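Much of what follows relies on a compact textual record of a protein's fold. Each token is a code from a learned vocabulary of local backbone shapes. The record below shows the convention in full.
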Amino acid sequence: MKKLKHSLILMSLGTLIFLGNFVKSYDFPHFYRASYFFGEPRLQKDKLTSIDITIAGGSTRKARNCAGNTVCLFDIYGPSNMQKLGAGIPDKDPTNPADIALIYLEHLPSRDGFGFLSYGGRFGLVETIFSLTQNISNGFFVQFLMPFKHMRVSEICCIDLSPTDDTYPNKSNPYWQLFLNQFNNILAKYGIYFGDWKETDFGDISILFGFAYNYQETTILDYIDFSFKGGIIIPSGRERSLNRAFDIPSGYDGHTGIPLQMDASIGIFDWFTIGAHGDVIPFLSKTKEVRMKTAYNQCGPIKLAKGCALVKQGALFDLGAYVKADHFARGLSLLIGYSYNKKYKDELTPQDMCLFDQCIVNSDPMLYEWDMHTINFVAEYDFAKDNKRFCPRISLFYNWQVAGRNVFKNNIAGGTFGFDMAWEY
């Protein structure tokens, strides 16, 4: 019976994993990879210590655009309109070849596809995530999450989408060809590096305080478990570089988050678990220097103008559910979960309203909301034995992104090693 099983847990920690340590070492959702399984309610046991280390990674050349269609990696917000790259940029030098190319190209007639470039490349990610969870007493606990990330963008290339017919202007237009020849000089003049990069950095460190409750006095279900967590996401990750064309921050781009999470699960048949999860992360606004649009028709990751703006980052929320076969074959457990993540649109308020029109700035597709659907597969084996204080476990998982908008199409695979330590019985 489940009551007897719970008694054995509390006495010997024989099956701690089923209540809250199942792949608990995770990072919060990001647009550049499938989301991790969110975890189960915490076990309510005084002074229990749990430590987990996760290593995971994935790479991709594809993204999902605003319609959910698969596109080249950096066409995530659509092809880049280079004809309007210099529109609205002040103080262009009519004697500088780079600015001459921008001026001439901008004044050509517009037509579908002309002056557009498609950017491709490969994004790779390897994450190491450390998690420490310490129970205090009466169900209260504290959790510390520290991610390390090795991120790489490579194989960057561009394809000219300009039409090749005889209609003016076309791919052979001399001013378009002048722009292409001066492209590297234009980027250098405005301080933008166009090329491969790799970085190893901290992600955003999180400190969460929680309460767990495990209810067993039920005659219909085996148990009902619940936990709540809230805390702070510290902006310890690397912020987006203004001088790199295809840079990606390792955290939430310098913004402090205030996560609130709820988890609940029920057990039936002495081995089957059903659970649900919900969380929301509002972010604090921050004034910083960013690159911004200077014309409505500008689009793409490359923008020449930069200035200070108040950045109001959109909130992020996550809903999920899972089913689990708990210890159905000795220490082996299998889980399949689903999560839906959505981040709302960012808003910018430029300080220099003469140079940057707020409506134009906020029409940038890079500020728009994104969402993602992920299915999580987890297999875990715990090596807990009766009357042992130290209970190790290992798991393998695969996070499969099945749909989304404005996200990289990047599935993640990895494993976790963890253990629970009981300081008292």
Summary: The chain has one domain: 2-77+120-171+192-421. Residues 1-23 have pLDDT under 50 and may be disordered. Residues 174-189 form the longest helix (16 residues).
